Protein backbone atom coordinates (compact mmCIF):
# COMPACT_ATOMS: atom_id res chain seq x y z
CA UNK A 1 0.00 0.00 0.00
CA UNK A 2 1.25 3.48 -0.86
CA UNK A 3 2.64 5.50 2.08
CA UNK A 4 0.95 8.60 0.60
CA UNK A 5 -2.73 9.51 0.65
CA UNK A 6 -4.20 9.01 -2.82
CA UNK A 7 -5.20 12.66 -2.97
CA UNK A 8 -4.55 15.76 -0.88
CA UNK A 9 -6.40 18.92 -1.86
CA UNK A 10 -5.37 22.10 -0.01
CA UNK A 11 -7.19 25.44 -0.26
CA UNK A 12 -8.37 24.79 -3.82
CA UNK A 13 -10.10 27.74 -5.45
CA UNK A 14 -11.57 28.07 -8.93
CA UNK A 15 -13.71 30.80 -10.43
CA UNK A 16 -15.45 31.05 -13.81
CA UNK A 17 -15.22 34.69 -14.82
CA UNK A 18 -15.61 36.39 -11.46
CA UNK A 19 -17.83 33.71 -9.91
CA UNK A 20 -16.01 31.52 -7.42
CA UNK A 21 -17.48 27.99 -7.70
CA UNK A 22 -14.80 26.20 -5.66
CA UNK A 23 -13.90 28.20 -2.59
CA UNK A 24 -11.00 27.17 -0.36
CA UNK A 25 -11.69 23.44 -0.58
CA UNK A 26 -9.41 21.12 1.40
CA UNK A 27 -9.80 17.36 1.88
CA UNK A 28 -7.87 14.18 1.38
CA UNK A 29 -8.63 10.69 0.09
CA UNK A 30 -6.79 7.83 1.78
CA UNK A 31 -5.00 5.22 -0.30
CA UNK A 32 -6.99 2.03 -0.80
CA UNK A 33 -10.29 3.71 0.06
CA UNK A 34 -13.37 4.88 -1.80
CA UNK A 35 -14.08 8.56 -1.17
CA UNK A 36 -17.49 9.83 -2.28
CA UNK A 37 -17.92 13.51 -3.08
CA UNK A 38 -21.54 14.59 -2.63
CA UNK A 39 -23.30 17.89 -3.13
CA UNK A 40 -26.33 19.50 -4.79
CA UNK A 41 -26.30 20.38 -8.51
CA UNK A 42 -23.81 23.13 -9.19
CA UNK A 43 -22.02 22.67 -5.85
CA UNK A 44 -18.61 22.47 -7.53
CA UNK A 45 -17.98 18.71 -7.47
CA UNK A 46 -17.09 18.33 -11.16
CA UNK A 47 -14.88 21.39 -11.08
CA UNK A 48 -13.05 20.02 -8.03
CA UNK A 49 -12.64 16.53 -9.53
CA UNK A 50 -11.51 17.92 -12.88
CA UNK A 51 -8.87 20.10 -11.19
CA UNK A 52 -7.64 17.01 -9.32
CA UNK A 53 -7.64 14.94 -12.50
CA UNK A 54 -5.60 17.58 -14.33
CA UNK A 55 -8.40 18.55 -16.70
CA UNK A 56 -8.80 22.09 -15.32
CA UNK A 57 -6.28 24.51 -13.89
CA UNK A 58 -7.01 25.77 -10.37
CA UNK A 59 -6.80 29.49 -9.65
CA UNK A 60 -5.03 28.76 -6.38
CA UNK A 61 -4.36 25.96 -3.94
CA UNK A 62 -2.32 22.82 -4.06
CA UNK A 63 -3.19 19.32 -5.23
CA UNK A 64 -1.09 16.25 -4.52
CA UNK A 65 -2.02 13.07 -6.37
CA UNK A 66 -0.41 9.75 -5.33
CA UNK A 67 2.23 11.79 -3.50
CA UNK A 68 3.05 13.88 -6.58
CA UNK A 69 2.48 17.58 -7.14
CA UNK A 70 -0.33 17.75 -9.70
CA UNK A 71 0.86 21.09 -11.07
CA UNK A 72 4.45 20.00 -11.79
CA UNK A 73 4.95 19.25 -15.50
CA UNK A 74 7.57 16.66 -14.60
CA UNK A 75 4.83 14.51 -13.00
CA UNK A 76 2.36 14.67 -15.88
CA UNK A 77 3.40 11.48 -17.68
CA UNK A 78 3.52 9.38 -14.51
CA UNK A 79 0.14 10.69 -13.38
CA UNK A 80 -1.37 9.98 -16.80
CA UNK A 81 -0.38 6.34 -16.55
CA UNK A 82 -1.38 5.88 -12.89
CA UNK A 83 -4.68 7.80 -12.80
CA UNK A 84 -7.93 6.79 -14.51
CA UNK A 85 -10.61 9.40 -15.18
CA UNK A 86 -14.24 9.19 -16.18
CA UNK A 87 -15.67 12.63 -16.86
CA UNK A 88 -19.36 13.40 -16.45
CA UNK A 89 -21.45 11.85 -19.21
CA UNK A 90 -18.52 9.74 -20.30
CA UNK A 91 -16.80 11.91 -22.92
CA UNK A 92 -16.69 9.00 -25.38
CA UNK A 93 -16.31 9.18 -29.18
CA UNK A 94 -19.72 8.35 -30.65
CA UNK A 95 -19.03 6.67 -34.01
CA UNK A 96 -16.82 3.65 -33.14
CA UNK A 97 -18.27 0.54 -31.57
CA UNK A 98 -18.08 0.02 -27.82
CA UNK A 99 -15.66 -2.85 -28.44
CA UNK A 100 -13.36 -0.72 -30.63
CA UNK A 101 -13.24 2.05 -28.01
CA UNK A 102 -12.47 -0.33 -25.17
CA UNK A 103 -9.90 -2.28 -27.24
CA UNK A 104 -8.18 0.97 -28.24
CA UNK A 105 -7.90 2.21 -24.65
CA UNK A 106 -6.70 -1.23 -23.51
CA UNK A 107 -3.94 -1.11 -26.14
CA UNK A 108 -2.93 2.43 -25.10
CA UNK A 109 -2.35 1.08 -21.60
CA UNK A 110 -0.28 -1.83 -22.90
CA UNK A 111 -3.01 -4.32 -22.00
CA UNK A 112 -4.31 -5.53 -25.37
CA UNK A 113 -7.27 -7.88 -24.99
CA UNK A 114 -7.99 -6.78 -21.40
CA UNK A 115 -11.27 -5.28 -22.57
CA UNK A 116 -12.87 -8.67 -23.15
CA UNK A 117 -12.95 -9.68 -19.47
CA UNK A 118 -13.75 -6.12 -18.38
CA UNK A 119 -16.69 -5.91 -20.79
CA UNK A 120 -17.97 -9.16 -19.32
CA UNK A 121 -17.83 -7.79 -15.76
CA UNK A 122 -19.58 -4.62 -16.95
CA UNK A 123 -22.35 -6.66 -18.59
CA UNK A 124 -21.40 -5.31 -22.03
CA UNK A 125 -20.32 -8.45 -23.89
CA UNK A 126 -23.31 -8.46 -26.24
CA UNK A 127 -23.06 -4.69 -26.87
CA UNK A 128 -19.43 -4.60 -28.07
CA UNK A 129 -20.36 -4.56 -31.77
CA UNK A 130 -22.73 -1.59 -31.31
CA UNK A 131 -21.70 1.98 -32.11
CA UNK A 132 -21.39 4.09 -28.94
CA UNK A 133 -24.08 6.53 -30.17
CA UNK A 134 -26.57 3.64 -30.44
CA UNK A 135 -25.99 2.41 -26.89
CA UNK A 136 -28.48 3.25 -24.16
CA UNK A 137 -27.43 5.97 -21.70
CA UNK A 138 -26.62 3.41 -19.01
CA UNK A 139 -24.60 1.25 -21.42
CA UNK A 140 -22.55 4.28 -22.48
CA UNK A 141 -21.85 5.07 -18.84
CA UNK A 142 -20.55 1.53 -18.36
CA UNK A 143 -18.26 1.80 -21.40
CA UNK A 144 -16.90 5.07 -19.97
CA UNK A 145 -16.27 3.45 -16.58
CA UNK A 146 -14.52 0.60 -18.42
CA UNK A 147 -12.24 3.06 -20.27
CA UNK A 148 -11.28 4.73 -16.97
CA UNK A 149 -10.41 1.48 -15.22
CA UNK A 150 -8.92 -0.64 -18.00
CA UNK A 151 -5.36 0.58 -17.33
CA UNK A 152 -5.61 -0.69 -13.72
CA UNK A 153 -4.94 2.80 -12.33
CA UNK A 154 -3.76 3.40 -8.76
CA UNK A 155 -6.35 6.17 -8.48
CA UNK A 156 -9.67 6.34 -10.27
CA UNK A 157 -11.74 9.54 -10.57
CA UNK A 158 -15.35 8.82 -11.54
CA UNK A 159 -17.83 11.67 -12.05
CA UNK A 160 -21.36 10.32 -11.60
CA UNK A 161 -20.61 6.85 -13.00
CA UNK A 162 -24.04 5.48 -12.15
CA UNK A 163 -26.16 8.31 -13.52
CA UNK A 164 -28.70 6.70 -15.87
CA UNK A 165 -27.65 3.18 -14.87
CA UNK A 166 -30.45 0.79 -13.84
CA UNK A 167 -30.52 -0.66 -10.30
CA UNK A 168 -29.17 -4.10 -11.35
CA UNK A 169 -26.25 -2.62 -13.27
CA UNK A 170 -25.65 -0.15 -10.46
CA UNK A 171 -25.13 -3.04 -8.06
CA UNK A 172 -22.79 -4.74 -10.55
CA UNK A 173 -20.87 -1.47 -10.76
CA UNK A 174 -20.60 -1.26 -6.97
CA UNK A 175 -19.18 -4.78 -6.92
CA UNK A 176 -16.68 -3.86 -9.60
CA UNK A 177 -15.58 -0.71 -7.76
CA UNK A 178 -15.29 -2.60 -4.46
CA UNK A 179 -13.05 -5.08 -6.34
CA UNK A 180 -10.87 -2.19 -7.57
CA UNK A 181 -10.48 -1.01 -3.97
CA UNK A 182 -9.77 -4.55 -2.79
CA UNK A 183 -6.76 -4.77 -5.10
CA UNK A 184 -5.40 -1.68 -3.31
CA UNK A 185 -6.41 1.11 -5.69
CA UNK A 186 -8.19 4.28 -4.54
CA UNK A 187 -11.38 5.76 -5.95
CA UNK A 188 -12.80 9.27 -5.75
CA UNK A 189 -16.37 9.22 -7.00
CA UNK A 190 -19.18 11.75 -7.21
CA UNK A 191 -22.76 10.62 -6.95
CA UNK A 192 -26.26 11.90 -6.27
CA UNK A 193 -27.30 8.48 -4.93
CA UNK A 194 -27.12 8.46 -1.15
CA UNK A 195 -27.54 4.68 -1.01
CA UNK A 196 -24.55 4.35 -3.32
CA UNK A 197 -22.40 6.53 -1.06
CA UNK A 198 -23.62 4.68 2.03
CA UNK A 199 -22.91 1.31 0.46
CA UNK A 200 -19.58 2.06 -1.17
CA UNK A 201 -17.76 4.90 0.48
CA UNK A 202 -15.18 4.62 3.22
CA UNK A 203 -15.25 8.40 3.55
CA UNK A 204 -17.67 11.08 2.42
CA UNK A 205 -16.98 14.69 1.56
CA UNK A 206 -19.98 16.99 1.09
CA UNK A 207 -19.57 20.19 -0.93
CA UNK A 208 -22.17 22.93 -1.03
CA UNK A 209 -21.86 26.20 -2.92
CA UNK A 210 -18.16 25.59 -3.44
CA UNK A 211 -17.28 24.84 0.17
CA UNK A 212 -16.81 21.67 2.20
CA UNK A 213 -19.72 21.33 4.63
CA UNK A 214 -19.04 17.80 5.93
CA UNK A 215 -16.23 15.29 5.85
CA UNK A 216 -16.21 11.93 7.62
CA UNK A 217 -17.17 8.28 7.54
CA UNK A 218 -20.83 7.36 7.02
CA UNK A 219 -21.03 6.38 10.71
CA UNK A 220 -19.58 9.72 11.79
CA UNK A 221 -21.87 11.75 9.55
CA UNK A 222 -25.05 9.85 10.43
CA UNK A 223 -24.47 9.78 14.19
CA UNK A 224 -27.71 11.01 15.71
CA UNK A 225 -31.39 10.20 15.90
CA UNK A 226 -34.64 11.18 14.22
CA UNK A 227 -37.88 11.11 16.19
CA UNK A 228 -41.30 11.48 14.64
CA UNK A 229 -44.13 12.40 16.98
CA UNK A 230 -47.39 10.69 16.10
CA UNK A 231 -49.53 13.66 17.06
CA UNK A 232 -51.08 16.72 15.51
CA UNK A 233 -49.04 19.35 17.38
CA UNK A 234 -48.93 23.06 16.61
CA UNK A 235 -45.70 24.33 14.99
CA UNK A 236 -44.79 26.52 17.96
CA UNK A 237 -45.30 23.62 20.38
CA UNK A 238 -42.95 21.46 18.29
CA UNK A 239 -40.40 24.28 18.09
CA UNK A 240 -40.52 24.79 21.86
CA UNK A 241 -40.15 21.04 22.43
CA UNK A 242 -37.22 20.90 20.01
CA UNK A 243 -35.48 23.75 21.84
CA UNK A 244 -36.06 22.03 25.19
CA UNK A 245 -34.37 18.78 24.09
CA UNK A 246 -31.63 20.31 21.91
CA UNK A 247 -33.15 19.15 18.63
CA UNK A 248 -33.74 20.75 15.25
CA UNK A 249 -37.02 20.28 13.42
CA UNK A 250 -37.23 18.50 10.07
CA UNK A 251 -39.83 19.39 7.45
CA UNK A 252 -42.37 16.62 6.82
CA UNK A 253 -45.99 15.52 7.12
CA UNK A 254 -45.61 14.75 10.84
CA UNK A 255 -43.57 16.64 13.45
CA UNK A 256 -40.03 15.28 13.30
CA UNK A 257 -37.02 16.19 15.41
CA UNK A 258 -33.37 15.57 14.64
CA UNK A 259 -31.04 15.22 17.62
CA UNK A 260 -27.29 14.65 17.72
CA UNK A 261 -27.47 11.99 20.44
CA UNK A 262 -28.02 8.24 20.84
CA UNK A 263 -31.53 6.77 20.73
CA UNK A 264 -31.49 6.03 24.48
CA UNK A 265 -30.37 9.58 25.33
CA UNK A 266 -32.99 11.04 22.98
CA UNK A 267 -35.79 8.96 24.52
CA UNK A 268 -34.65 9.97 27.99
CA UNK A 269 -34.73 13.69 27.12
CA UNK A 270 -37.87 13.62 25.05
CA UNK A 271 -40.16 11.53 27.23
CA UNK A 272 -39.42 13.85 30.17
CA UNK A 273 -40.15 16.94 28.09
CA UNK A 274 -43.37 15.44 26.71
CA UNK A 275 -44.63 14.36 30.14
CA UNK A 276 -43.94 17.81 31.61
CA UNK A 277 -46.06 19.37 28.86
CA UNK A 278 -48.96 16.93 29.24
CA UNK A 279 -48.20 14.96 26.06
CA UNK A 280 -47.54 11.66 27.83
CA UNK A 281 -49.69 9.69 25.36
CA UNK A 282 -47.88 10.76 22.20
CA UNK A 283 -46.40 7.77 20.33
CA UNK A 284 -42.79 8.12 19.15
CA UNK A 285 -41.10 6.63 16.11
CA UNK A 286 -37.35 6.62 16.70
CA UNK A 287 -34.77 5.83 14.01
CA UNK A 288 -31.15 6.53 13.15
CA UNK A 289 -30.37 9.40 10.75
CA UNK A 290 -29.77 8.35 7.16
CA UNK A 291 -27.15 9.94 4.95
CA UNK A 292 -30.00 11.56 3.02
CA UNK A 293 -31.33 13.20 6.23
CA UNK A 294 -27.86 14.56 6.91
CA UNK A 295 -27.37 15.73 3.32
CA UNK A 296 -30.70 17.56 3.30
CA UNK A 297 -30.05 19.22 6.63
CA UNK A 298 -26.55 20.52 5.83
CA UNK A 299 -26.85 21.60 2.20
CA UNK A 300 -28.53 24.58 0.60
CA UNK A 301 -31.74 25.77 2.25
CA UNK A 302 -31.38 23.04 4.86
CA UNK A 303 -28.16 24.53 6.20
CA UNK A 304 -28.41 25.00 9.91
CA UNK A 305 -32.02 23.73 10.01
N1 LIG B 1 -16.80 26.12 -17.97
C1 LIG B 1 -17.63 26.78 -17.17
N2 LIG B 1 -17.89 28.10 -17.36
C2 LIG B 1 -18.71 28.78 -16.55
N3 LIG B 1 -19.35 28.23 -15.49
C3 LIG B 1 -19.13 26.92 -15.25
C4 LIG B 1 -18.28 26.13 -16.08
N4 LIG B 1 -18.27 24.86 -15.60
C5 LIG B 1 -19.09 24.87 -14.52
N5 LIG B 1 -19.60 26.10 -14.30
C6 LIG B 1 -20.51 26.49 -13.22
O1 LIG B 1 -19.84 26.23 -11.99
C7 LIG B 1 -20.77 25.74 -11.01
C8 LIG B 1 -20.24 24.42 -10.48
O2 LIG B 1 -20.35 23.45 -11.53
P1 LIG B 1 -19.91 21.95 -11.34
O3 LIG B 1 -20.13 21.27 -12.66
O4 LIG B 1 -18.56 21.90 -10.75
O5 LIG B 1 -20.99 21.46 -10.25
P2 LIG B 1 -21.41 19.98 -9.81
O6 LIG B 1 -21.40 20.00 -8.31
O7 LIG B 1 -20.56 18.97 -10.47
O8 LIG B 1 -22.91 19.91 -10.33
P3 LIG B 1 -23.80 18.65 -10.88
O9 LIG B 1 -24.15 17.83 -9.68
O10 LIG B 1 -25.01 19.36 -11.43
O11 LIG B 1 -23.01 17.94 -11.89
C9 LIG B 1 -22.11 25.63 -11.70
O12 LIG B 1 -22.89 26.74 -11.33
C10 LIG B 1 -21.77 25.66 -13.18
O13 LIG B 1 -22.80 26.28 -13.92
From TrEMBL:
It is a peripheral membrane protein. It comes from the Bacteria. Signal peptide: none annotated. It is found in: Cell membrane. Residues 7-234 form the ABC transporter domain. SMART domains: AAA (SM00382). SUPFAM superfamilies: P-loop containing nucleoside triphosphate hydrolases (SSF52540). Transmembrane segments: none annotated. Its main location: membrane. It holds the Pfam family ABC_tran. Keywords: Antibiotic resistance, ATP-binding, Nucleotide-binding, Transport. InterPro entries: AAA+_ATPase, ABC_transporter-like_ATP-bd, ABC_transporter-like_CS, ABC_transporter_ATP-binding, P-loop_NTPase. One of its GO terms (molecular function) is ATP binding. GO terms for biological process: response to antibiotic. One of its GO terms (cellular component) is plasma membrane. The keyword tRNA processing does not apply. PANTHER family: ABC TRANSPORTER ATP-BINDING PROTEIN. This is ABC-2 type transport system ATP-binding protein. It comes from Bowdeniella nasicola.
